[in-house]
Amino acid sequence: MKEVISNRQGISMIILLMLSESFVINPITDPNSDIWISILIAIGITCLIVVVYCRILVRYPGKNLYEILITVFGKIIGNVISILYVLYCFYVGALVLSTFILFTNVVGLINTPKSIIAIGVILLVIIGLKYGLEVMGRWSEFSVRIIYPIILLTIPLMLTMVEAFNLTPVLADGIQPIAKGAMEMITFPFAEVITLILIFSTKSISKSKSIYKVFIYGLLLGGFVLFCTHVSAYLCLGKYAYSSSYFPIYSAVSRINIGDILQRIEAIIAIIFIMSGFVKIAIYLLAGCKGVAVLLKLEDYKFIVTPLSIITLVVSLTTVSNIMELNFHIYYYNYMAILMQIIIPIITLIAVEIKCRFIEKK
C-alpha cells in the first residue's frame, strides 16, 4: 500500500525523532564546558551522514533501505543485514519505551505501576501504526506546531538564570572529551534518522526531489533545539549538577522563577517528551514491522503490528527496571549504533554506487 507524506510532515517526524528522550536525559556521558562544541560538531558530521542516507534512497527510487539491501547484496547477505536492522529497531524502541515509563513514573505518575503506563503507551502506538504513515505524519506536524513555540519561549526564561562562566575555560580538557561527546551526540540522537530510511522511499515524500531538503532541514531544526536547550541547561546548572542529574533540562526548567509569578513550568517538558516520545516509539516499531514484512514477503505490515508491539512491551518491562539499568543499555547502545548508523550505510552506498555504475555501463 502506497503511503505518502508531505515535506513538512517528513521534517516534523525527523525533529520529533531527535527530540524525544534526548530532550530530557543527558546524551553525553561526561559533559564539560565544551558541550556546545561537541553538539555543533555532531550536527555538522551528521549532515554528511544524512547525505549518505539520501543518496542510497535516490539511487533506488521507490525502495526503502530493506529492499535496497536485498537488491544490492543479494538475498542471503541482504536478509542478514535486514535482520540486524529489525532487531536494532525493536531494541531501541524498547529502550525509548523504558525511558518514557521511567520519566513519567519519576516526575508525574509516581504511584502508578510501570506496566500500566507502558500498556497505555503501547496501545496508542498500535492504534497510530494501524492508521499508517500518513496519520503519523499529520500527528507529527501537529505536535511540532505546538512544541516548537513552547521551546522557543522557554529558552529565554532559562537564560535568565545562566552563569556564563559555566562554559569556561574553552578546551580545558583537550580535544578528546569534545570528540567523545560529539560521537555520542551523533549516535544518540542525530544519526537515529537512519530509522526513517527503513520506512521511507523517495516516493514516500510528496515531492521526491526534496528528499535531501527534508532530511537536512529536519536535522538542522532538531539540532538547533537540542543545542539551545542543552547548552542553556548546562549554563543554568553547571557541570556537576548537569552531569549528575538524570533529567538535566527538566531540572533546569524547574528552577525558573520570575517574580514568584512564573514558576513550576517544568510540566511543559513532560508534555513535550510525551508528544515526541510517542512518535519515536511508533517510528521504531513501524521500521521494525516493515522489516519483518519485507523478510517474510508480506504485502502489508499492519496485521503484525500488535504482536510485535506486545513483544517490545515485554522486552521493555523485563530488561529495564530503573534509570541505572537504562544508562547501562545506552552506554553500550552507542557502540552498536556506530555499526548500524555509520558503517553499514557507508558500505551500502559504496556497493550501490558500484552496482549502479556497472549497470549504467552495460
TrEMBL record:
<keyword id="KW-1133">Transmembrane helix</keyword>
<feature type="transmembrane region" description="Helical">
    <location>
        <begin position="330"/>
        <end position="352"/>
    </location>
</feature>
<feature type="transmembrane region" description="Helical">
    <location>
        <begin position="301"/>
        <end position="324"/>
    </location>
</feature>
<feature type="transmembrane region" description="Helical">
    <location>
        <begin position="185"/>
        <end position="202"/>
    </location>
</feature>
<feature type="transmembrane region" description="Helical">
    <location>
        <begin position="115"/>
        <end position="133"/>
    </location>
</feature>
<keyword id="KW-0472">Membrane</keyword>
<keyword id="KW-0309">Germination</keyword>
<feature type="transmembrane region" description="Helical">
    <location>
        <begin position="145"/>
        <end position="165"/>
    </location>
</feature>
<feature type="transmembrane region" description="Helical">
    <location>
        <begin position="79"/>
        <end position="103"/>
    </location>
</feature>
<dbReference type="GO" id="GO:0016020">
    <property type="term" value="C:membrane"/>
</dbReference>
<dbReference type="GO" id="GO:0009847">
    <property type="term" value="P:spore germination"/>
</dbReference>
<protein>
    <submittedName>
        <fullName>Endospore germination permease</fullName>
    </submittedName>
</protein>
<feature type="transmembrane region" description="Helical">
    <location>
        <begin position="35"/>
        <end position="58"/>
    </location>
</feature>
<comment type="similarity">
    <text>Belongs to the amino acid-polyamine-organocation (APC) superfamily. Spore germination protein (SGP) (TC 2.A.3.9) family.</text>
</comment>
<dbReference type="InterPro" id="IPR004761">
    <property type="entry name" value="Spore_GerAB"/>
</dbReference>
<keyword id="KW-0812">Transmembrane</keyword>
<dbReference type="Pfam" id="PF03845">
    <property type="entry name" value="Spore_permease"/>
</dbReference>
<feature type="transmembrane region" description="Helical">
    <location>
        <begin position="214"/>
        <end position="235"/>
    </location>
</feature>
<keyword id="KW-0813">Transport</keyword>
<feature type="transmembrane region" description="Helical">
    <location>
        <begin position="267"/>
        <end position="289"/>
    </location>
</feature>
